[in-house]
Amino acid sequence: MNASTPPFTIAIIGAGPAGLFAAELLSAKGCRVTIFDSMPSVGRKFLMAGRSGLNLTHDEPFERFLTRYGTAQEWLTPALKAFPPTALRKWAEDLGQPCFVGSSGRIFPKAMKASPLLRAWLGRLAVQNVEIRTRHRLKARNADGSLIFETPDGPATIKADATLLAMGGASWSRLGSDGKWTTLLEPSEITPFAPANCGFLPDWNDTFRERHSGAILHSVALNFDGRTTRSDLTLTARGLEGSALYALSAPLRDTVARNGKAVLSLDLRPTMTQADILRRLLAQRPRESQSNRLRKSLALDSLSRDLLRAATPKDATPATLADTIKALPLTITGTDALDSAISTAGGIRQDALDEHFMLHRHSGLFAAGEMLDWEAPTGGYLLQGCFSTAFAAAEGMLRWLESSHSAIA
Fold first, then answer.
1. What is the mean pLDDT of residues 258-284?
2. Maximum alpha-carbon separation in the chain
3. What CA–CA distance (Å, rounded) separates 324 from 268?
4. Which of 137, 186, 301, 320 could form a disulfide with 150, with the two C-beta atoms 3.0–4.6 Å apart?
5. Over 70: is that where the pLDDT of 159 sits?
6. Res. 286 pLDDT band, cuts 50 70 90
7. Are 69 and 76 in contact (CB under 8 A)?
8. What pLDDT does residue 284 have?
9. 359: closest CA among 143, 157, 164?
10. Contact of 37 with 176, CB cutoff 8 Å
11. CA atoms of 308 and 318, how far apart (whole Å)
């Protein structure tokens, strides 16, 4: 804005990373910014994400980084280039939160938690005169752009020069991301939500689940759709969870939706060759039971042994066992509940927005963050996408406001 331009008034709906970051950018440009959030306090999902170590972004080569956004890569590339991982790291460090790169390439604040960063961030917003109103749920947007909120004191109507929607996806609803905002837009503007970075349901019976609930398959590999991932997998009361599954969630979810099931290949000993496994099995005494041979030669736990028992004949030869240990079929029949997913696919469609993240049908209404129809694996890609789209939407909003003001003038 130039000196002769009056301060624009901005309403931002949602006090997660995308909303807070857009508020910071816009208030730094002289806009009067008010953030509205339905919850009693801000950044609840952000704080939850930081409980086990706040993974801000990733240090891998940028061209490879872009591929992590799958079918949304082309759409999000301009925003990610405008505010890349290096910029996000610098932003955190400017808030007094030095970062480091972990062994996997993930970037974390040295404090590891989200709370110190959030406190510093809110302090900066306060200095920039950003107002935050909690317990304000957006119920409607009128044709003139005014916003109607449900508040503890009754309905409230707010008028702003432009509005940014940053209300998140549809998982972890108790933290504020309940997806109810979809009723504010036309159905044609929305792709239905689906779980992403989620657990999956194998075709195991209840007895098997109960026997092994809480067990962990350590350092196993999964192969599906030409991709291989590796991590621990945890068997919960509902199914299987783990970063190796999360990384495959999009193709797995889509295959299950299309075919009713998906079959992965589970490698129980990814650091060993089939020949190494066979040699160890053959070195055991012939009179040993199959369970003992597997336990003594390969340190396979009870869950692994039961999976092999179910996947092989009773009189399976060592060669058959070795083959199955390297490629055990794992049939998936569904995803875990949407609300318990780490993130969600679906949301506002790309074709409902212009290149500056303003909705075609709603002049002056912009959107950013997880409420847009994109998904990415864990590893810093989710937060980076939220910050980058917020940056692009804030820039687009300023451009639109200045253009509109110039046209009126």
1. 96
2. 93
3. 9
4. 137
5. yes
6. confident
7. yes
8. 85
9. 164
10. yes
11. 12
What is the structure's pLDDT at 74? Answer: 98
Contact 18, 166 (CB under 8 A): yes
Tokens of 174: 């108790």
Q: Supply 269's token pair.
A: 């000993």
Q: Count CA atoms within 13 Å of residue 386 on its CB side.
A: 27
Strands 190-196 and 162-165: unpaired
Which amino acid makes up residue 137? R
Report pLDDT digits (tens) over 165-206.
999 999 999 999 999 999 999 999 999 999 999 999 999 999
Q: Taking Cα atoms as reference points, which of 77, 17, 23, 21 lies closest to residue 45?
A: 17
Per-residue pLDDT reduced to its tens digit, 316-372: 999 999 999 999 999 999 999 999 999 999 999 999 999 999 999 999 999 999 999
Unique residue bearing structure tokens 């074709």: 351
Is the C-alpha dihedral spanning 406, 407, 408, 409 positive or negative? positive
Spatial distance between the Cα atoms of 99 and 110, rounded to a whole number of angstroms = 5
Of 164, 141, 144, 75, nearest to 366 by C-alpha is 164
Distance between CA 349 and CA 341 in Å, rounded? 20
Quickly state the pLDDT bin for 287 (edges 50, 70, 90).
Answer: confident
Mean pLDDT along residues 2-10: 73
* Rama region for 366: left / alpha / beta (φ>0; ψ in -120 to 50; rest): beta
pLDDT digits (tens, 9 = 90+) for 123-157: 999 999 999 999 999 999 998 999 999 999 999 99
Tell me the C-alpha distance between 391 and 386, whole Å: 9
